[in-house]
Each structure stands twice: as C-alpha cells, then as structure tokens.
Amino acid sequence: MEKRGFYFSTMNNSYFYDDTTGNVSVVDKVPNKRVVFGKQRYEFKAANREEIEKFIHENGFRQLILIVTENCNLRCKYCVYSGNYENSRTHNYFKMDSSIAKEAVFKYLSSISNIKKKKPFLIPIIGFYGGEPLLNYALIKEIVTYSKQIYNGKIYFNMTTNATLLDEEKIEFLVHNNFLLSISLNGYKEENDRMRVYDNNKGTFDDVMEKIRYIKTKYPDYYRTNCQIIGVYDVGTDLHKLQEFYSMNEVVRNKLTMLLQVSDVCTDWYDQYSDDQKNNFKKQLEELKQIFIKKVMNGEKLDPVLRLLFALPLYEVINRPLKGR
C-alpha cells in the first residue's frame, strides 16, 4: 500500500504524517515532493441538481447566515475585505434589502418546519454578519420580529460584531432575544490597536473593552453563557503577552473561544516582517508549545491561548474521520 500524507519539519526533526493511519513518524529528511497522494482509490462524480435538491429537502440547512451589510465602521489592517487580498471584495455601502432578507428567512424556516417531522429536535439558527452587522441594526430587529411571527418554535440568533456600535438599547435587544454574541478583540491594548483600528487609524481597544465591561456588569448571566471573544494574531504578535492577557484580565478571562492566524493566501501581508521577527515568532511558538506539553503531562488546566494554539488542532486530527482503510 502506497503512503498518503505529507512531510513536515520542526526546529529539531522531520516527520511524515500518514493520512491513512493517522500516525506521525520521524524521517531522515524531507523529500522535494512533500505531499504524497498514493494510489487513486475513489471514483468521484459530480452531484446533479436533483441529488442536491433531494439532500436539502431531507436534511435542510443547519444555519442561515445573512450578510446584512458589506460596510464596516472599522478599517482593520488585516481584514479580508481591506484590499490586501487579491481574491476578495473590499468594503462598500451595500445593505441587504428587507424583502430579500425576509424571503431567505421564510424559505429557511419553511424547510426547517418540514424537516422537523423527521428531526423533531432540530432548532433553526439565524446568524447576522457583515461587514459590521450593527450598521444595519434596523434590519436585524425587523428580521428577529418577523422570524418569531412566522415560526412557532425556538430560534437561535447569533451575531459577530466589532462591538464598537453597541449601546444600552442594542445590548438590551440582544439579551432579550438571547443572541449568541461573538466579539472581535485581538488581546491586550497594544496588540489590538496595532491592527484593529477606525478609519482614522485610532485603536479600538478602549471602546470595545468598555462595551464588554458593561455587558458583564449589567447582564452577568448573559455574558457568562452567551458571549465569546474571537481573536486574530500574526507574526507581529507577542504570544506571551497574549497568553497573559486572556488568562489574567478579569473582564475577558476564559472568554476567548477562537484564535485565528492572519491568512497568507493571496496576499503579501507577511512581507512586512523581517527574518528576525519571523524567527522570534517561531521561538515564542516553540516556547509556548513546551509549556503546553508540560501542562498536559502534569494534568494541569490549559489557558485559552494554549488550548486554541495546540490542543484544539490535535483534537481535530485525533477525532477526524479516517477513510481508505
């Protein structure tokens, strides 16, 4: 049986990851051909329209995501819509029309109603995204009201926001409708304000933390169960300071649930960093990895940054479905 997987290297050794068995083995060197496909074992055919429609009719959509606006009040330097990515749109003033949103919601909730005959515990999820979705807050309110009018059952709502446009009225609305709220924050002030900025290049940290602190103080139960933070990092991030911030800051401690690295696809983003900066970043990553390994070996609790950087990827590999055995 031919191998199928890929070769990779760390600071100390080279390895081969076998995608058939899930095993990682040490190798003497990495060949020029890093990815090994092995023998062709599967015959793929394109699904036709009838098959797709049948699948949707029987299984439905797990979630409806409405891009309610393509505009944003921030100009985060790494944003996929910033103009730094060749394959992506840029910010514009488009807003979703009420009639389009209602049609999408009607079709989605109608399909859920039909599928619930077979899957009675299925609960529809409607998400609001952008741009910054709160720039079209009126539409969000209208759709929440409309959804409850046409659907007799529980609905989950969620939103990803930069939080700068939140005020008391909007927060009360989100709490009242039990929104799952994902707030973008890139960690400690210096780090967040390095890349998450308004159009005048002013950092957003103080404003976002003020809104988060308000939610936590006035609606502690809602904050505990429904709010999470999404962070982004790159080579310029001080990973040790990031770890300390999300472990020690009382307001955001243990609220980081997603940590993404700035993409290097279709962009020259990382050209701005010197070799010394890249090597320093690799050094920090290796230091944190050793801390992670030590904590796991000692059965210690992992902080959010260690968990998201190392434990989550391992979990996804270990629990992935294996094919071709």
**Number of E-state strands:** 10
**Major sheet: arrangement of strands:** 5-6-7-8-9-10
Anisotropy-based shape? globular
The major beta sheet can be summarized as: 6 strands, parallel
Unreliable sequence segments: 40-44
Report how far apart the termini are. Answer: 10 Å
Helix content range: 25-40%
Beta-strand proportion: 15-25%
Q: Mean of the pLDDT scores? A: 90
Number of helical regions:
10
Output the helix-strand order: EEEEHEHEHEHEHHHEHEHH
**Strand pairing plus helix content: what structural class?**
alpha/beta
Radius of gyration: 23 Å
Task: Spell out the blueprint of helices and strands.
Blueprint: E1 5-9, E2 14-18, E3 24-27, E4 35-36, H1 49-59, E5 64-67, H2 98-115, E6 125-129, H3 137-150, E7 156-161, H4 168-176, E8 180-184, H5 189-195, H6 205-218, H7 220-226, E9 227-233, H8 239-248, E10 256-261, H9 275-297, H10 304-318
Helix pairs in contact: 2-3, 6-7, 9-10
Keywords, separated by commas or semicolons:
alpha/beta, six-stranded parallel sheet, globular, 325 residues, four-stranded antiparallel sheet
